[in-house]
Automatic annotation (TrEMBL):
GO terms for cellular component: cytosol. Its cofactor is FAD. GO terms for biological process: homocysteine metabolic process; methionine biosynthetic process. It comes from Drosophila guanche (Fruit fly). The keyword Flavoprotein applies. It comes from the Eukaryota. Its EC number is 1.16.1.8. GO terms for molecular function: [methionine synthase] reductase (NADPH) activity; flavin adenine dinucleotide binding; FMN binding. This is Methionine synthase reductase. Gene3D superfamilies: NADPH-cytochrome p450 Reductase, Chain A, domain 3, Nucleotide-binding domain of ferredoxin-NADP reductase (FNR) module, Translation factors. Residues 61-305 form the FAD-binding FR-type domain. Keywords: FAD, Flavoprotein, Oxidoreductase.
Length: 463
């Protein structure tokens, strides 16, 4: 039989089975799931929010807990465009309990796996009848591992639907030992060999191509190997935790009050991620207002506060990376209008986007330039007839840029949705330093390092 999984045609999994291979050591199983006869009510299914204080949320401000925020509004800022590979970008306004924030701060959003995917998984594992039955995860009576632990991200009393919806990541990269264990739960010989071989050192090339490059995930493997039937207890122990995702706040609290905040997300097509798919579905759901669970993350130096009003900023943004700067600029505009505090600092903004239409809130940026919130606005586009990149804009302004950067009160902020872009921008700034200060490459790299140490060069990395 030929399978077509995630746009990948795998004519026959047999083609990936080597003659000789040694499977990786399979992960062992230390847990068991005990079912009760009671069904879990829908209102009880709160996932990781029910796990108590032992469960930590990454970078959470300890004094604050999770908040249910209503999606008050959603707005498409950029339409997807296949020809230029432009992603759809959406802005949502969230309403929640008061929480203090400054422009540039980030929130954690709790994702959930799509109901249709969960249903498909429950069905595939033969768990439909028990999907909502309350169960408890325990250490197995046969558990031989001394330091075996119960996973902290699964509530004490739960049900399979809650586990798969709120607690476990279904699209993580599968490790070789996990694949090897899956082979042990597979009854058809060909499928068993395929999984065992894929886990072996000898088949690393196949592992790299299928798992790392083509991106086959757990659900795809189950589809390819119809007789693979891992027990719930094994998955609870070894599938990774479904982790919150960070998003930058894209407005100023002076615009909206602290009970509201906005975030902007871009949707990868056709393989949208877990959180972005969830947000898309929530924005379209009938029953309104839809709610998402969020928490304030620890703050760092990537923010714009009253103290910065008299400082200079050089802002460099690519794509959705403009989001936090929209907050910076709105904040400055509000202070300028209120005139309670002197606003002496200069703000320069460099923006890169695929096309002019893909620049977030382009008209607003132009208006800020007109109103002298921005002293300099430069935009460039990479998917137009003569493409230009941000680094080039920096080169064009090198003399004045370096002069401004070296003033004691100037901070340069970079935000791009990709580590590679941030590295190219750093090289671009390095080239400006070389050219203007007559440095060689090593000296410029050293100077850049010092600027980072002095917190004059700040990056928000969206990895
Ligand atoms: C400090 C910080 C701030 C951030 N701020 C923002 C922000 O303001 N706006 C924003 O949009 N993002 C921001 N991000 C990134 C954001 O946190 C998420 O990583 C992003 O939205 C994708 O999350 P997801 O859960 O939808 O995707 P995930 O499910 O985590 O998937 C990650 C990527 O893998 C791809 N993928 C999914 N399934 C597969 C598969 N089977 N094979 C191959 N690839 C696959 C998806 O398309 C997706 O692009 C920020 C990140 C950080 C660290």
């Amino acid at each position: 039989m030929s399978h077509h999984v995630e746009g990948v045609e795998i004519a026959d999994i047999e083609a990936f089975i080597l003659n000789e291979y040694i499977p990786a050591k399979p992960l062992d199983s230390n847990l068991q799931v005990d079912f009760t006869i009671r069904k879990q009510a829908k209102s009880e299914k709160c996932g990781q929010r029910r796990c108590g204080d032992i469960l930590k949320f990454p970078f959470a401000q300890t004094t604050r807990t999770l908040t249910a925020a209503s999606i008050k509004q959603s707005k498409v800022l950029v339409d997807a465009d296949k020809a230029t590979e432009t992603k759809r970008v959406v802005e949502i306004t969230l309403e929640s309990d008061d929480f203090d924030y400054e422009p540039g701060d980030t929130i954690g959003v709790l994702p959930s796996n799509a109901p249709a995917v969960v249903e498909q998984l429950l069905d595939r594992l033969g768990l439909i009848d028990q999907a909502d039955t309350i169960c408890q995860i325990k250490l197995s009576l046969k558990c031989a591992k001394k330091n075996a632990k119960l996973p902290a991200h699964i509530p004490d009393s739960t049900c399979p639907r809650e586990i798969f919806t709120n607690c476990l990541a279904l699209n993580g990269v599968l490790q070789k030992q996990f694949l090897s264990a899956l082979a042990g739960y597979t009854s058809v010989a060909k499928e068993r060999s395929f999984l065992a071989c894929l886990s072996s050192k000898q088949a690393t090339e196949h592992y790299n191509s299928l798992i790392l490059e083509r991106g086959l995930r757990f659900m795809d493997i189950l589809e390819l190997c119809g007789s693979c039937q891992p027990p719930l207890a094994f998955l609870v122990e070894h599938l990774p935790r479904l982790l919150p995702r960070p998003y930058s706040i894209a407005n100023s609290p002076l615009e909206t009050g602290t009970q509201e905040l906005r975030i902007i997300y871009s949707v990868q097509s056709p393989k949208a991620g877990v959180t972005t798919s969830m947000l898309e579905a929530k924005c379209q759901q009938q029953e309104q207002p839809a709610k998402v669970f969020i928490y304030p993350r620890l703050t760092n130096t990537f923010r714009y506060t009253e103290e910065d009003l008299c400082k200079n900023q050089i802002l460099i943004a690519v794509g959705t990376g403009l989001a936090p700067f929209l907050g910076f600029l709105a904040h400055k505009e509000h202070h300028q209008k209120q005139q309670k505090q002197p606003v002496k600092g200069e703000t320069w903004l460099y923006v890169g986007a695929k096309t002019p239409q893909a620049v977030l809130k382009r008209n607003k940026l132009l208006a800020w330039e007109q109103a002298s919130v921005l002293q300099r606005l430069r935009m460039c586009h990479s998917r137009v007839e003569s493409p230009t990149y941000v680094q080039q804009l920096l080169q064009d302004d090198a003399e004045e840029l370096v002069k401004l950067l070296l003033k004691p009160d100037t901070v340069l902020y970079v935000c791009a949705d990709g580590a590679k872009i941030s590295t190219s921008i750093a090289s671009g700034v390095g080239l400006c330093l070389q050219k203007v200060l007559h440095l060689d490459e090593t000296e410029a790299t050293q100077q850049l390092k010092e600027l980072r140490q002095q917190a004059k060069y700040r990056e928000d990395l969206w990895l």
